[in-house]
Model the fold of this input.
Amino acid sequence: MTDSVHSYLEGPEGAGKVLTHARLLARLAGLFQEIAPPHLGQASGLANFKSGIVLIHASNGAVATKLRQMAPTLVEEFLERGIECRGLQVKVQARARPAAVRAAAQKPLSIRTSQRLTALSESLPSASPLRSALEKLLAHAAREE
Done:
């Protein structure tokens, strides 16, 4: 049974092509992290490689723009490492933030801060956009007990 599964996975009619491509993507992802500047590598990742084109997903537009500017250099680096790279395509693909990060970012207002914001809001004219914004913040903000 184990031999037949192994034969299927490695065979050209089975999952062999998928496994080969997955191994290539893992290798290319490692190379990309080596050749990209660290701050850009952390904010992007290799997504695919097809017909000699490396596809990179950037977490935001600024990172995508910088990677597009660096495309000729990155292509040259892939070529020097034996990858037949004809070009580089960059797309913005924002990464979902883990729930723990989102929850940590939403800290409750302290009692003192809440009191000060309330006093500031009350000192502003009733038609003030800042007063409206503060009232909205105070209405929706979590507060420490």
About this structure: The two ends are 62 Å apart (CA to CA). Residues 100-140 form one domain. The chain has a mean pLDDT of 86.
